[in-house]
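During the no-cost extension, the postdoctoral fellow (Dr. R.K.) reprocessed legacy sequence entries with the updated structure-token encoder. One reprocessed record is reproduced below for audit purposes.
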Amino acid sequence: MTDELILNHDDLRRLHRHYINLTCVDSGEPAKASNGGNPKRYNFSAFVVGVEGVLLAITAGHVFAELRQAVTHGSILSDWAIDDSMVTDHGFPAYPVDVNLERDILFFHEDGLDYGAYLLDPMASRALEKSGIVPVRKEQWDAEDLEEFSFWTLVGLPTQFATLNHEGPSLKGHVTVRVMHLPERPAGLLLTKHPRLFAKVDFASVAEWERQFDIGGMSGGPIFGTRQPPQGSVYDYRLIGIQSAWDKRESVAMCAAQPFIRALARMIKERKGMQ
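Re-encoded structure tokens follow.
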């Protein structure tokens, strides 16, 4: 490990300001049975993107697919909120939002496609703006020079580093870790119909840990690319992908962010044209 890989919060602030958690409570009987009779809080890595004048929370599609499946087996989901406490110091509680899995969510989870999007209403958008969350701009997700931004970092919240309470505050410790692009699919990750990007996790780049940890919970987190390690207060970067899967060792799969967000942009533009 070299010193240049030890990046502190100030070094990474420009990337962290896009990151949020979506969170909800499950008071269904299966959840309570697995949690000592208490409701269970779920927490999902996500980030905010600006598309055609609206803000979207982007995460992995399997997050919403699994929640829908859970509902069919007795989950009762409530208390949805957006939490940015991992990357901001404003001290405000998580911002409550209304999420209907049938109405408010667009997602794909099929043979390598793993994308999810939740449209933020104007009030939620203003609340995030006041707390310092900034959407990823078009210049960062729609550029044609992604190959130049080859130093990749993944932002997310491993469940290992979170204590989630169904009532009262939860304790969370997000992680930003370097991931190094792999040109071929690792043997531990499935071959899928739709192509994905692959990378090796450099666990030693997390200075406080320096050994392998369980990245479960980071699904839906953004992968950003910079031209060099993103130290300092000003640097250019691009949105590369959305973390989707890993092999429980050191390899991760991600879905390229640009095709999905471009498709969302076309969809939003068409809907605005019909209004």
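Residues 257-274 form the longest helix (18 residues). The longest strand covers residues 40-51. The remaining legacy entries will be reprocessed before the final report is submitted.
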